Amino acid sequence: MLCVPLVRPGCQWLLDFDNVESVDLLMNYWPIASQGQAIITTRNHSLAFYPTDGGVEIAEWDTETGSQLLVHLLSTDIGNQLTQDEADSAHEVPLTLRGHALTLSLMASLIRHRSWSMKDPFEMYKRQPQKVHGIFGNSSINPLWNMLFQSLNESTCAILGVLAFLSPDSIPQALFEPKDPDRQKSFNDATLFVSAAFPRKDAEFAQMYHSWKQCSLYLPHVLSLRGSFREEREANPNFSALMQYSSLNNACQRYLIETNGYNDLVVLLEVNAMAMPTIPPQPSSIQIELEGDLASPRGQALARVGRAEEGVKQVKLSYGIFAKDRPRNLREEAWCAENLADGIASTHNFPEGPKTLA
């Protein structure tokens, strides 16, 4: 309790005692001086007569209004999928909580955090009435607060304890934003996670059609990483990518070419080209694979969107990159040659196409 002087010449005070539980507790802090007024909020009706001069009762919500609030607060979780029993429970909860808006909000948080159904709070009360004594049939809501705080881990409790001593309106937003090293680590962790799940082109086949279904499941995550890398790179020029990130993008590029997802492909190619120079130095064979697998789909994409001449240059670049590999990967070179011939044909330079395949 913060003690402040309440007697100053020519000054009056206004005190607010919130959620007072008893007269005895209030009198420990009741001012002796009479140079002001006090507002008390309470669920204890006796405080409306002493030590106050009068009271205004704010009626509790009826069952229907309370159930509507509860369902609204849970609308993104279970509110739209209620069974008949849960709908009945949605009416029972505000009835037993006496229509108190704060307790209904806390109960909704508890149901959401613990993935409960509407019936679970009552089942818990039947099994452990002593644990939640004070929530049902009692004016105190402290047990409900305690149940919510029990879900916090040690670090979260420490942060909450510190913030309790600070001014809420003066806490900078930056305090809750991860620092650059944390953002880099989180991005790398996400990259490794998605890269481990995303299919790769089979060494025996030039296509990924046998993995399309699996690729489609992970495509949104690859595109999310794509947007995140661009944003992080713009905010922090030192932000970098792992080798696995470019490898993941190369695999996804192959899938987007096969499924004609050119809008996503073009942007992914741009971001991949932005990320490639930031990865740590790699062995020659891996570097050749990464650069070749970037140039090849870029050329194919350009050829298929009507920029055939630019596409041919990129496919030729890819062909030259793979030709440097030792020992030579003849299968990869053959695929590059086929893509190059297709690109040349798109420029209507038909005599040159067969020469490429020769």
Helix content: 55-70%
Identify the strand order in the major beta sheet.
1-2
CATH architectural category of the largest domain? Alpha Horseshoe
CATH superfamily of the largest domain: Tetratricopeptide repeat domain
The span between the termini is: 89 Å
Number of self-contained structural domains: 3
The dominant shape is elongated
Poorly predicted segments = 133-139
The helix-and-strand class reads mainly alpha
In N-to-C order, the SSE pattern is EHEHHHHHHHHHHHHHH
Q: Class of the largest domain in CATH?
A: Mainly Alpha
How many DSSP helices?
15
The main pleated sheet reads as: 2 strands, parallel
Strand content: under 5%
Q: What would the CATH topology of the largest domain be?
A: Serine Threonine Protein Phosphatase 5, Tetratricopeptide repeat
Q: Tell me, rounded to a whole number, the average pLDDT.
A: 75
Strand elements, count? 2
Compute the gyration radius: what is it? 33 Å
